[in-house]
């Protein structure tokens, strides 16, 4: 007779953790901006670089578990100990398992930058080979991870706004379409044949005075239902990466990145006809793919607003959209300008008349091209306020003086409530 021995099922500790809730808690760590600066002078400190190693990720995961209360009684019981090797091993297994789950579910990817160890090192414990390996492996957010963080950020921001109606951009114009929102009109060549049958039959009856079948229909009898014309919009999000964005102990760039991710998710899921591009501006300006936004950093730069506007205008004019807009998030005055010979003129002392003049000239060029500029300013200096107001007057856009806590709400409110009085 064959006997079987049954043991109690012991699931992996990492399986008991809500992975999506954990990733949401890790958003600030995963999107941390840091400073892509040098190691000398006031420009930065090597310690300002964000820790993108697996070891740093594991520390952030442990902190997130503690703060979110996801350390279940079973996990606490398994981890409880006096710092002995058994409890340390269980903790390491938990953190390794969570990192592995994040990779297997497609939220993170790993890249090894390991170096050959020198001298004698223990296998486990502080200063061990395993700890060194965790530091040598770098993690990156995948497209799925960025999309998820954008979705979660969007939910948080819209939740704080209350109920929001999300749909296409409304305009006062009417068009023929499947959804009927207004009265019917006579059919014209090119209209969608969304036929208003009662009105068409009424026209035929009035013309012929007969109800004989088959009904005699003429081209002029045809009536089609109208729907509200809904426009498409091309957006360029301009993000300031000058040094001031992380000065004075406040990281202003990470909230700006969150807004970019949320806006991208909103546009892709609710406004499929719209487009969004991201431009970083500093001493110069460049477009970056949204997939690389999580790794973007502030650097030892001035603020070349004119160059950013010039690039944004070029990107928008290349797109055939009814509406074009620039959303500019910054915290400082223009302090740099690209000269005709390619050299960058810089002056961080006050409002330089030449820099301001060229920047406003680029603002006027945007208006002439039918591009609206909405500025979200993270500072309230008196001279800066006047400059931003001038930008809004020229571009017929809006100026919002906000902070990192309310930035996302202002940006989304402006985007969702945007209406146009005339479609060019």
TrEMBL record:
It comes from the Bacteria. SUPFAM superfamilies: vWA-like (SSF53300). CDD domains: vWFA. It holds the Pfam family VWA_2. This is VWFA domain-containing protein. InterPro entries: VWF_A (IPR002035), vWFA_dom_sf (IPR036465). Residues 232-412 form the VWFA domain.
């Amino acid at each position: 007779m064959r006997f079987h021995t049954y043991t109690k099922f012991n699931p992996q500790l990492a399986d008991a953790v809500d992975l999506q809730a954990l990733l949401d808690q890790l958003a600030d760590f995963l999107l941390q901006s840091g400073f892509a600066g040098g190691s000398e002078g006031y420009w930065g400190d090597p310690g300002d670089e964000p820790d993108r190693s697996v070891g740093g990720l594991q520390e952030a995961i442990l902190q997130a578990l503690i703060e979110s209360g996801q350390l279940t009684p079973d996990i606490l019981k398994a981890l409880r100990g006096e710092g002995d090797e058994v409890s340390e091993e269980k903790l390491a297994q938990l953190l390794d398992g969570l990192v592995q789950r994040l990779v297997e579910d497609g939220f993170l990817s790993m890249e090894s930058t390991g170096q050959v160890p020198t001298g004698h090192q223990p296998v486990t414990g502080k200063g061990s080979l395993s700890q060194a390996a965790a530091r040598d492996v770098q993690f990156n957010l995948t497209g799925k991870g960025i999309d998820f963080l954008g979705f979660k950020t969007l939910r948080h921001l819209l939740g704080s706004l209350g109920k929001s109606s999300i749909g296409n951009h409304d305009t006062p114009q009417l068009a023929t379409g499947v959804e009927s929102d207004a009265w019917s009109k006579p059919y014209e060549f090119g209209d969608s044949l969304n036929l208003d049958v009662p009105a068409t039959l009424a026209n035929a009856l009035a013309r012929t005075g007969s109800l004989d079948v088959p009904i005699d229909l003429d081209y002029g009898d045809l009536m089609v239902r109208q729907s509200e014309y809904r426009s498409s919009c091309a957006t360029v999000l301009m993000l300031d990466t000058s040094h001031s964005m992380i000065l004075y102990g406040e990281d202003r760039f990470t909230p700006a990145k969150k807004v970019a991710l949320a806006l991208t998710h909103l546009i892709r899921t609710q406004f499929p006809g719209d487009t969004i591009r991201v431009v970083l501006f500093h001493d110069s300006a460049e477009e970056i793919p949204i997939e690389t936004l999580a790794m973007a950093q502030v650097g030892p730069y001035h603020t070349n607003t004119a160059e950013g506007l010039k690039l944004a205008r070029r990107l928008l004019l290349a797109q055939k959209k009814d509406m074009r807009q620039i959303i500019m998030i910054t915290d400082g005055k223009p302090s740099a300008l690209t000269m005709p010979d390619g050299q960058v003129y810089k002056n961080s002392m006050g409002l330089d008349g030449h820099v301001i003049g060229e920047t406003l000239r680029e603002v006027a060029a945007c208006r002439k091209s039918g591009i609206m500029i909405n500025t979200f300013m993270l500072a309230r200096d008196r001279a800066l306020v006047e400059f931003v107001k001038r930008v809004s007057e020229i571009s017929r856009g809006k100026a919002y003086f906000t902070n990192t806590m309310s930035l996302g709400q202002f940006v989304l409110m402006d985007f969702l409530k945007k209406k146009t009085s005339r479609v060019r």
